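Progress note, project year one: complex with coenzyme A.
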Amino acid sequence: MFNIKVNENISLKLLEKKDTNELFALVNESRNYLREWLPWVDNMKQETDYEPMIEMWLKQFASNDGFQAGILYKGKMVGMVGFHGIDWSNSKTSIGYWLSEGYQGNGIMTETVRALVNIAFTEYKLNRIEIRCGVKNRKSKGVPERLGFKQEGIIRDAEYLYDHFHDCILYSILSREWV
Ligand SMILES: CC(C)(COP(=O)(O)OP(=O)(O)OC[C@H]1O[C@@H](n2cnc3c(N)ncnc32)[C@H](O)[C@@H]1OP(=O)(O)O)[C@@H](O)C(=O)NCCC(=O)NCCS
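Model obtained:
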């Protein structure tokens, strides 16, 4: 069973079909808040919408292409984190994340992303990790900034959010910079 301990309170688990209800409930209760920065929220309208996603994420893990994991805080699912695939030719990946609204402000995501960076550099032995954050997404930018990622530049109109494009900051860290 895939279970990564981040610290005493936080662990990560691969999502399975039986997690569908919990995942749906989590997104549903934070829908308006998540919608501000995540483009997929309106596509996930009912529990069954998660089944093909979870299947796809399990295949991703089985194909050695990274993974998507549920974040458990004191045993309760509070969000997700994952690698957007792995570019083995160029030895790099990128990380995405979201947290339920009520669990912000405790350092949960910073510690979780720290664990993913460790996995990427020590287990996958990659060279480079990217994180993209909306230019105005202060809380999201805080995660790579606290972990020492470098800001490389701004990707203009990087993502379409329901009715508008928005610019993203590209952050990165290299294995030789991670101590
Ligand atoms: C982005 C997101 C995960 C950030 O959540 P967050 O709670 O701010 O991040 P962390 O869990 O790392 O917590 C950091 C906050 O906790 C505080 N904190 C408390 N204890 C801490 C600790 N031990 N370590 C680090 N930070 C701690 C920090 O000061 C910071 O608060 P601040 O922003 O007021 O300074 C969350 O806002 C979210 O999911 N937003 C919607 C989706 C989204 O934007 N996803 C990212 C798309 S790129």
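The CA atoms of residues 79 and 107 lie 13 Å apart.
The longest strand covers residues 76-87.
No further modelling is planned for this target in the current period.
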